[in-house]
Amino acid sequence: MLHTLMKSPFEANISLLISMLKTSDDFLALQDGVLIALKDNIFLKKIIMSSVKLYLIKEDVYARGLHQNISSKFVLISYIHFVSLTLKHKKQMTW
């Protein structure tokens, strides 16, 4: 399953999201969701420990001026790669 976080992690039920992640899942944050990848974020350790592949939309990170404060555990991708993830996962959950 592809889990996409589009809003700030402070506006979503991140505990529920993380509890639903399986090792075969992918996690993508975009728009204000990219805040979850900030270093020293209260949610960062738990999302990293979930063992899923973690992605961020590069354009959203740079638009918010966060590129120097993002955890290295996240892979920055383009919207084209986002489309590839949606094709890979027939099931998707938006948070």
TrEMBL record:
Keywords: Cytoplasm, Transferase, tRNA processing. It comes from the Bacteria. It comes from Buchnera aphidicola. Heterohexamer, formed by a dimer of trimers. The hexameric TusBCD complex contains 2 copies each of TusB, TusC and TusD. The TusBCD complex interacts with TusE. This is Protein TusB. GO terms for cellular component: sulfurtransferase complex. PANTHER family: PROTEIN TUSB. The keyword tRNA processing applies. It is found in: Cytoplasm. The lineage of its organism: Bacteria, Pseudomonadati, Pseudomonadota, Gammaproteobacteria, Enterobacterales. Belongs to the DsrH/TusB family.
